[in-house]
Amino acid sequence: MGQKDIISKRVFKRILVDVATYIFNLQLATVELIETEQQRIEDRRADLLTG
Q1: 42-51 burial code (b ≥16 CB/10 A, e <16)
Q2: Mean pLDDT of 23-37
Q3: Do residues 17 and 23 make contact, with C-beta atoms less than 8 angstroms apart?
Q4: What global pTM score does this model have?
Q5: How far is Cα 34 from Cα 32, in angstroms, rounded to an integer?
Q6: The domain containing residue 11 runs over which residues?
Q7: Residue 14: is its pLDDT beyond 60?
Q8: Does residue 25 form part of some domain?
Q9: 6 within a domain of the structure (yes/no)
Q10: What is the four-CA torsion angle of 9, 23, 31, 40, rounded to 10 degrees?
């Protein structure tokens, strides 16, 4: 699965450069993908306790 992720990132970078070049008329020297993975933190508390 890791190899597929690397390939998809390369393809996405290439698409980004093409869009910037041909649609927005920008010349990019380098492209860097920013990691946006967020950690999930949960605080579980009971709403109602009965005894």
Answers
A1: eeeeeeeeee
A2: 85
A3: no
A4: 0.57
A5: 6
A6: 1-32
A7: yes
A8: yes
A9: yes
A10: -60
> For the chain, what is the radius of gyration of the CA atoms?
21
Could you tell me if residue 19 is inside a domain? yes
Tokens found for residue 46:
């009971």
* Length of the chain counted residue by residue: 51
- Report pLDDT for 20: 92
Single out the residue of 25, 32, 27 nearest to residue 10, CA to CA: 32
Residue 44, domain member (yes or no): no
Contact between 21 and 32 (Cβ < 8 Å): no
Token digits of residue 10: 């390369």
pLDDT band at 51 (very low <50, low <70, confident <90, very high): low
Specify the pLDDT at position 2: 65
Structurally, how many domains does the chain consist of? 1
